[in-house]
Amino acid sequence: MADFCPMEPITDPTAKAAVLHDDRSHVFHSWSAQAALNPMAIAAAEGSYVYDYDGNEYLDLSSQLVNTNIGHQHPAVVAAIAAQAQRLCTIAPQHANDVRGEAARLITERAPDGFTHVFFTNGGTEAVEHAVRMARLHTGRPKVLSLYRSYHGGTGLSVNLTGDPRRWPNDSGTAGVVHFFGPFLYRSPFHSTTEAEECSRALEHLEQTILFEGPSTIAAIILESIPGTAGIMIPPPGYLAGVRELCDRYGIVYIADEVMSGFGRAGEWFAIDLAGVTPDLITFAKGVNSGYVPLGGVIISAPIVETFAERVYPGGLTYSGHPLACAAAVATISTMAEEGIVEHAKHIGDSILAPGLLALQERHPVIGEVRGTGVFFALDLVSDRATKEPIAPYGGTSPTMVALGAAMKAEGLLPFMNYHRLHIVPPCTISEAEATEALARLDRALGAIDDAYVG
Ligand SMILES: Cc1ncc(COP(=O)(O)O)c(C=O)c1O
């Protein structure tokens, strides 16, 4: 694994002021009320670290939006992008291109057996849109089932498939989208007390949903193999196999959304590998090239490829299979394979993050549950372990969460937070020493909110 030496801190108040001036004057930010924004100005990033202009260095426990799986500025990926830029920056999608073909081959080789082709997109939400379009055309059915606790993207259909509150203000085109509850023992919607009970009740609920919606109207079920932004809930053993079985029984396409959980994040190439289940379509983005150049796509199994053998697939994108993005994917996947980065992510999870976070749970009652695998962990933060009262409301934040974020930054940690949860999602390349140091800093930061526990 490439050895990153932290850079020298950067102190440049003039540059910071200029960056913030242009940003606040002209950049319209995602998912935000614009007036109150106070973004952090980033000067540089390398490996597991991000640098501001005030001389601060942060360990990136967010991987930005959970995408820099190979770490920041990996030299092999940067060099591949530079070389491709010298050779051929862009070429239209109708042409055959070496890096596009190689990226597709490397991706299908890592998918379960039976996946032969890749349709490339610019990111995750487009991958979801196209996967659903393929499923609808393949089955001739209109509806799609997805989880309440889910995120599938920000465009028209993907945001309707999303279960979390970002759907609410955008929920004007839900025709054909039906939500259901997945398994989540800690906050069980089914009053279960064991994983086995949660699994069978969640499958029974899904089958009832299918029957009452009308199986002959359902094209697809889309599921994150491990729901990510919604809380990193690893499905209980047997659940995804049960979903596969229901899809087979009712002729429904199974779409595994691996946009966040894929490419090493869960300690496997795809999180679905943990369940040993083969879906019909897989959506990916983020970790495929760590977001160095935007890229996503749909990995397509042979029967769905066959549907479009003689029939035109009615969809496309100017930048489908963009050479710079594909060169970055080839370099990322090859380097991850050569350097054992997926295995490393599993090792960091098993040997440092899981035991370390469980130890923090013993010291800080505010941690109601620790969930996760690989470099994909969530802390469910509660004010009372008995009632499991979240320390921020669903869809909102709270002074306690704001205080935790500030305490983490003061300790030199970049956090990823969602409502009452803190996600620990560093790059897959984080070293043992960095992960251990991150836990020590997190321990101190959590001290700032210990008082929020009143149970
Ligand atoms: C599981 C999942 N699907 C889809 C998306 C949308 O991806 P993008 O933001 O690249 O459009 C995300 C983004 O976080 C995601 O986590």
Features:
single chain; alpha/beta; seven-stranded mixed sheet; five-stranded antiparallel sheet; 16 strands; binds pyridoxal-5'-phosphate
Helical proportion? 25-40%
The tally of helices reads 13
Query: How are strands sequenced across the largest beta sheet?
Result: 4-10-9-8-7-5-6
Largest sheet: 7 strands, mixed
The succession of helices and strands, N to C, reads HEEEHHHEHEHEHEHEEEHHHEEEHEEEH
Determine the structural class based on helices, strands and strand pairing: alpha/beta
Outline type: globular
Mean pLDDT: 96
Low-confidence stretches: none
Question: What is the count of β-strands?
Answer: 16
The CA-CA distance between the termini, in Å, is 44 Å
C-alpha Rg, in Å?
22 Å
Which hetero compounds are present in the coordinates? pyridoxal-5'-phosphate
User: What portion of the residues fall into strands of 2 or more residues?
Assistant: 15-25%
What's the topology here?
Blueprint: H1 13-26, E1 42-46, E2 49-52, E3 57-60, H2 63-66, H3 75-87, H4 98-110, E4 115-121, H5 124-139, E5 143-147, H6 156-161, E6 177-180, H7 195-213, E7 218-224, H8 239-250, E8 253-257, E9 281-284, E10 296-301, H9 302-310, H10 323-339, H11 341-363, E11 367-373, E12 376-384, E13 389-390, H12 399-410, E14 413-414, E15 416-418, E16 421-424, H13 432-447
Parallel strand pairs: 3-14, 5-6, 5-7, 7-8, 8-9
Antiparallel strand pairs: 1-2, 2-3, 4-10, 9-10, 11-12, 12-13, 12-16, 15-16
Bound molecules: pyridoxal-5'-phosphate (PLP).
The site of pyridoxal-5'-phosphate has 16 residues, from α5.
